[in-house]
Design goal:
With 443 residues, this protein is an alpha+beta fold. Among the domains are: 157 residues, Periplasmic binding protein-like II (D-Maltodextrin-Binding Protein, domain 2), CATH 3.40.190.10; 65 residues. It has 16 helices and twelve strands. The structure holds calcium ion. Calcium ion binds next to loops.
Length: 443
């Protein structure tokens, strides 16, 4: 039996199955049949390929899973903030370069009727509950490196919290002002993706700014108005500082073979087919000659294209042919290098590709990557537990401060910082530090 894993894919969880004998090692099958996996690893940077091996290898020296991997720049640099470009043009505004210009742009969206219906119905910035943290991340990066995965930054090799200091308090004050001045949608902290999608499904465009990498969940990416939203750059803070989120490569345990499997070698070959060039194109894009063909031109950046799509692979209804990321995947730059003969700069993935190249320039020299090489599985457990608990507390408090349910005064702020400490912030930071050192030293 071949089993797709969706247990948050922790190494400790996988190893428990292995120790109980419920899953079988697959090293020798990978060695013998893993040509697809190896060919992709060969295209990775050596330190990234080493991370794949190290993450997959369990304390007993064996491998039990096949991974899904993304080294896409659009996943790595994903603090993308979309602005409705026709409003900028109509109001004769440039994309903002600093916090003041960002504020002024939002105020112009609110007060100058950019959708032209005579009503003050514009919502300068909106989002749904699951991405409500992104406006804080976007603004925070004008004060210090700010992320939403770890709430940690690195300076000179030292890991620190970025959610307990003066910079974070200034970030919250700025975002609170956006809320007080009616520039931020108060529904942001309660509405679901579906509710936001419904709110946006009106004749007139009403939202100017969406701080989230993948608004295709709310707006059809192949149609207007999404075609006219553009990614803006990070903005500078009062001291000229500017940063952006850098997540690094993502590697997840994805498929494993249970002890009931009668043909483990065949199971591994099926998995490896997903990684092969042929398998990737077939499972991701469909049939050659019908859904796609070999490229003859360049992508939107003028680089040789990897594929020419004949069919829009987005927004497809449920079907059983193009599997997208429901199979093992190995996303890398190839995914973005689609032939774009018309140099269609409104094409969704083209915009994300170009946006990631722009954001990359603000990336910090050091950041805690999404995937860490833990020195042992106990540390992984500690970090995952504390990260979940602390992130949940930080974001709960974030909402209360931004909504004004808690005042941003010294008393409330100190209570918040003390509570972070009570909840294990110090252990969290020191355990991540160990894993970070272990990861960086293995590069
Ligand atoms: Ca209006």
């Amino acid at each position: 039996m071949w089993w797709p894993v969706s247990l948050a894919s922790l190494s400790s969880g996988i190893y428990e199955f292995a120790q109980n004998g419920q899953i079988v090692p697959i090293n020798e099958y990978i060695d013998q049949y893993g040509a697809g996996l190896q060919s992709n690893k060969a295209r990775m940077a050596p330190e990234e390929a080493a991370m794949v091996d190290s993450l997959l290898t369990m304390p007993d020296g064996k491998i039990y899973t096949m991974p899904s991997i993304s080294s896409l720049p659009t996943d790595n640099y994903s603090m993308m903030t979309w602005v409705y470009k026709p409003w900028l043009e109509k109001l004769k505004l440039q994309a903002p370069k600093n916090l003041d210009e960002f504020y002024d742009m939002c105020m112009a969206f609110k007060t100058r009727d950019p959708n032209g219906n005579g009503l003050a119905d514009e919502i300068p910035i909106s989002n749904s509950k699951s991405q409500a943290n992104r406006i804080v991340t976007y603004i925070g990066n004008a004060f210090q490196y700010t992320d939403w995965e770890w709430y940690l930054k690195v300076s000179g090799g030292k890991v620190e919290s970025n959610a307990n200091n003066a910079e974070y308090r200034k970030t919250l004050e700025y975002v609170r002002k956006l809320m007080v001045d009616g520039l931020l949608d108060p529904l942001m902290y309660t509405q679901s993706n579906a509710e936001l999608k419904a709110a946006l499904a009106v004749d007139k465009v009403i939202v100017g700014v969406i701080p989230y990498a993948s608004p295709s969940g709310y707006l059809n990416s192949s149609q207007e108005p999404m075609r006219s939203y553009d990614i803006i750059d990070m903005v500078e803070g009062p001291n000229g500082f500017k940063s952006t989120v850098k997540r690094g490569i993502t590697i997840n345990h994805d498929w494993l073979v249970t002890k009931k499997c009668k043909l483990p070698a065949v199971a591994v070959r099926v998995a490896d087919y997903c990684f092969s060039d042929e398998g990737w194109k077939y499972l991701r894009y469909g049939e050659k000659g019908v859904d796609w063909e070999d490229p003859t031109g360049t992508d939107v950046m003028g680089q040789p294209a990897s594929i020419k799509l004949l069919k829009d692979v987005y927004g497809l209804p449920s079907q059983n042919k193009i599997w997208r990321n429901h199979i093992l995947f190995f996303y890398d730059i190839r995914y973005l290098q689609r032939q774009n003969d018309a140099k269609d700069l409104k094409e969704y993935e083209a915009k994300k590709y170009i946006g990631s190249q722009m954001l990359m320039k603000s990336a910090p020299p050091e950041a805690v990557p999404l995937k860490l090489n833990y020195p042992n599985l106990e540390d992984e457990g500690t970090v995952v537990r504390l990260r979940t608990e602390l992130r949940s507390y930080i974001e709960e408090m974030q909402a209360l401060f931004v909504m004004g349910d808690l005042a941003l005064n010294d008393a409330e702020w100190n209570k918040y910082v003390n509570e972070l400490n009570n909840r294990g912030l110090e252990t969290y930071v020191s355990t991540v530090q160990k894993a970070y050192d272990n990861t960086v030293s293995k590069k």
